[in-house]
Design a protein that fits this description.
The complex is a heterodimer.
Chain A (H helix, E strand, L loop, with lengths): L1 H18 L4 H4 L1 H13 L15 H4 L1 H4 L2 E3 L12 H13 L5 E6 L6 H21 L7 E7 L10 H7 L1 E6 L2
Chain B lengths: L1 H19 L8 E3 L7 E5 L14 H11 L3 E3 L15 H6 L4 E9 L5 E9 L4 E10 L4 H17 L8 E8 L2 E8 L6 E6 L3 E6 L5 E6 L6 E6 L5 E5 L5 E6 L5 E6 L6 E6 L6 E2 L7 E6 L5 E6 L6 E6 L5 E3 L7 E6 L5 E8 L2 E8 L4 E4 L7 E5 L5 E8 L2 E8 L4 E5 L5 E7 L5
Parallel strand pairs in B: 2-3, 2-4
Antiparallel strand pairs in B: 1-29, 4-5, 5-6, 7-8, 7-30, 8-9, 10-11, 11-12, 12-13, 14-15, 15-16, 16-17, 18-19, 19-20, 20-21, 22-23, 23-24, 24-25, 26-27, 27-28, 28-29
Helix pairs in contact in B: 2-4
The chains are: A alpha+beta, B mainly beta.
Chain lengths: 173, 428
């Protein structure tokens, strides 16, 4: 519940940011303000209290375990359902300056392989630009495309195509 | 380069095994229309065909070549004798319906080679059109058959034949990928590269000696140029982001390609040795799949700058672009005919991806195929035939359609999943 509230707050901030120049630091105050409140509820909090700064946050926070964004055919627009996931990852990356993420864009198998390679890049770039808009450092994010070359679902039907129109966030070591 | 060499060495051992399995060639040719304008021809069995090695008959390959062109109708020899060097009984051949006749013989000579003699006759005009003698190695049967078919085609059709040209394509077997180079009919496939990662967009240099392609072997798309005779290769483009869609200029000195080094996928031009990179297009969308016009002055490409992927043409000098396709919301992969007059591309029609042809002068379009998963069209160097990839039963296959839409056949002699075909130039 906590996360979805934060997400809603930041979604509003993000949409506001979209309409003007991206001055992310101002908007960041919303989630930062939420963190001390969470810490206050737990008197025995060990360190700073930001759950996203936890070394094991990627395994602990449900939204951070969601690492796939799905797209419509021939589209690179991120559906609004996924904004909260991207927002959670932006918080993790900002709280862990040493963390790096690789974003792999994929497409379904239909149509041109080369166009799909470019489309997969656009999908990866869309995720990347949303992360940097939220204040993640450019140097922490790399966007690449696998086009239709590495399908996760190997079928040739709508179910497989839906699964493959996807961008994945892959954390390195 | 080491990886490539290694692949060659490995494949030298593997290829016999791999290629031995799907040896049976079953080319089913579909020919539409009455066929009244196809030339009725008899290719008589040659004397001593067993002089050549292998099971297929030399004359069987010649007949199949000519049939695949869609320009000939085979007339059976029946019981008529055909002895090379003797004047044929023209009236008898004409009585069986043939307008042209080919008679030949083979014989082993003392130095282990095979002497080949053949003659082409005009049965209606009762004259000899062609007489040829040559000496070949006994294991060169396919090359010999394609050579003879070319001679017949050139004499009777008046244009160069494509029977000695080669094609390249990518085959996926399990999780391995190989770039194969084969005869125009898909036979004689020889691996040129083996990789555990995808291979894309192979394309021949204009002299047929090199192939540029995209490989994911370093976990991202990088463009390489391989020299077929030596197996050596260079990295043409390995910039930040994606490197893909190579296309040779008609003089072979430059390539166009797609890079994302400056953000979006855009088209660049680079010298064939990788030097002198310059950006060609500057749009706010995807620009990819470049192909040079035969005169080298413009580049056809796919762009979604207008909101959906469409075909455009840009000047090589300044990158100024003009949109060419307007019908439908998905038109990709432009390929220009050798004479520069006809464009083919893949269009999505009611959810079906099909090969479409546009006459550039009139802008009239025509859908050439009735399959629904067509990709990667490639013109034969004579401009009459288009090779493309499609899908049958969940497996990639290669198909051929003539530009008049009347001749179609499938190259179904591979067991694996094949894609990304590209037709090489006329042999030099």
């Amino acid at each position: 519940m906590k996360y979805s509230l934060i997400a809603t707050a930041t979604l509003a901030a993000m949409l506001a940011a979209c309409s003007t120049t991206p001055t992310a630091p101002v908007e960041e105050k919303a989630p930062v303000a939420a963190a001390p409140a969470a810490a206050a509820a737990k008197p025995a909090a060990v360190t700073a209290g930001d759950p996203f700064a936890d070394a094991d946050a990627l395994n602990k926070i449900p939204l951070l375990q969601k690492r796939s964004i799905y797209f419509e055919f021939d589209s690179f627009a991120i559906p609004l359902d996924y904004v909260s996931i991207i927002e959670a990852h932006s918080k993790y990356l900002k709280a862990n300056a040493g963390a790096k993420v690789l974003i792999q864009g994929n497409t379904d198998e239909r149509g041109s392989r080369e166009y799909n390679l470019a489309l997969g890049q656009k999908r990866a770039d869309a995720v990347k630009s949303n992360l940097t808009l939220l204040g993640v450092k450019e140097s922490q994010v790399e966007a690449v495309s696998l086009g239709e070359e590495k399908p996760k679902a190997t079928g040739h039907d709508e179910a497989a195509w839906t699964e493959n129109r996807r961008a994945d966030l892959v954390y390195g070591n | 380069m080491k990886v490539f060499r290694h692949a060659f060495a490995l494949l030298a051992a593997l290829s016999c095994l791999l290629l031995g399995l799907p040896a049976s060639a079953q080319l089913n040719v579909e020919i539409y229309g009455a066929g009244a304008d196809r030339i009725p021809i008899t290719i008589a069995d040659f004397g001593d065909e067993s002089a050549m090695q292998g099971d297929d008959k030399l004359t069987g390959i010649i007949r199949k070549d000519l049939e695949l062109s869609g320009m000939f109708r085979m007339i059976s020899q029946g019981t008529l004798p055909a002895v090379e060097g003797t004047v044929p009984d023209y009236a008898a051949w004409r009585g069986q319906g043939a307008d042209a006749l080919v008679v030949g013989s083979l014989s082993r000579n003392p130095n282990g080679m095979v002497d080949v003699r053949f003659r082409l006759y005009d049965v209606t005009r009762t004259s000899e059109l062609l007489s040829l003698k040559l000496s070949v190695a006994a294991n060169q049967k396919r090359a010999l058959a394609h050579h003879i078919a070319n001679k017949i085609y050139e004499k009777l059709v008046g244009q160069p034949g494509i029977f000695a040209t080669r094609i390249a394509y990518v085959e996926k077997v399990g999780n391995r990928y190989q770039l194969l180079v084969a005869d125009f009919d898909g036979e004689n496939a020889v691996p040129a590269l083996l990789s555990a990662e995808p291979i894309m967009s192979p394309t021949w240099s204009p002299d047929g000696k090199q192939i540029a392609y995209v490989s994911f072997e370093k976990k991202k798309p990088i463009v390489y140029v391989a020299t077929l005779a030596t197996g050596r290769r260079i990295t043409l483009a390995n910039y930040k982001g994606s490197n893909s869609a190579p296309a040779w200029s008609p003089d072979g000195r430059r390539l166009a390609l797609t890079l994302t080094k400056d953000g979006l996928s855009q088209i660049y031009i680079v010298n064939a040795d990788g030097s002198g990179l310059r950006r060609l297009t500057s749009s706010n969308g995807i620009d990819t799949e470049p192909r040079w016009s035969p005169d080298g002055s413009s580049i056809y490409f796919t762009s979604d700058r207008g909101g959906s992927p469409q075909i455009y043409r840009a000047s090589v000098d300044n990158g100024n672009a003009q949109r060419l396709s307007f019908a439908g919301a998905y038109n990709v992969t432009p390929r220009i005919s050798p004479d520069g007059k006809t464009l083919v591309y893949v269009s999505r029609n009611n959810g079906r991806f099909q090969i479409t042809m546009m006459d550039l002068a009139s802008q009239q379009t025509q859908v050439l195929t009735d399959s629904d998963r067509d990709e990667s069209p490639s013109f034969a160097p004579d401009g009459r035939t288009i090779l493309y990839a499609t899908e049958v039963g969940g497996r990639g296959v290669l198909s051929v359609v003539s530009t008049d839409g009347r001749t179609r056949y499938r190259l179904n002699n591979r067991a694996g999943d094949v894609r990304e075909p590209t037709w090489g130039p006329f042999e030099k």
